Amino acid sequence: MKKMIIAMLVLVMLLPNFAYGKGKNIDYSKCLTAGYFNGNYWRYLDRDEKILWLRAWLDSLTFNVNGFVVTTGTAESDDFKTAMFGAANKYVDTFQVIVSDSNKLIARVDKIFEDPDNRHIAIGNILTALNYEKSGGDFEMRLLSLREFSK
């Protein structure tokens, strides 16, 4: 019985490494900025994990944007909701275009997080800045702002 308990404890201690993949030794104290995963965390992920992270992030964004629109306003504000849905879906559609070419996006985010000055920036903020660039905004200016804001 004692051996079984010890074996179970060892299994429970090792499980997070197997569940996460390849027994990574992650220093989570450096992987979060204001509670959000940052570039340090991104650099631990392999390609498949990055694709999964991007898809989950896009799903979460879509759900939250549409959920916000549905719960905003009153029954009298149907025109407002229709306008908000249109704006929200356009915003999400831009992200879908960016995420649809995962290899290109991963390479771009990897390059951004090569710079140690960018590693404390939340991954979602980098993706938002890339979306801003896709819409005609100045990515480098946004990146400089994020560096200061995320300190």
Summarize the structure in words.
This protein is mostly helical and 151 residues long. It has one domain (26-149). It is 72% helix and 3% strand. It has seven helices and two strands; from the N terminus they run H-E-E-H-H-H-H-H-H. It has helices at 2-20, 39-44, 47-71, 78-100, 102-114, 123-134, 139-149, and strands at residues 32-33, 36-37. The chain has a two-stranded antiparallel sheet. Strand 1 and strand 2 (36-37) form a beta hairpin. It is globular, with a radius of gyration of 20 Å. The N and C termini lie far apart (51 Å).
Quickly describe the structure.
The protein is mostly helical and 151 residues long. The protein is 72% helix and 3% strand.
Blueprint (SSEs and pairs):
Elements: H1 2-20, E1 32-33, E2 36-37, H2 39-44, H3 47-71, H4 78-100, H5 102-114, H6 123-134, H7 139-149
Antiparallel strand pairs: 1-2
Helix pairs in contact: 3-4, 4-6, 6-7
Q: Could you give the distance between the termini? A: 51 Å
Give the number of helices: 7
How many structural domains?
A: 1
- Backbone shape: globular
Order of helices and strands: HEEHHHHHH
Instruction: Give the helix level as a range of percent.
Output: over 70%
Structure keywords:
2 strands, two-stranded antiparallel sheet, globular, mainly alpha, 72% helix
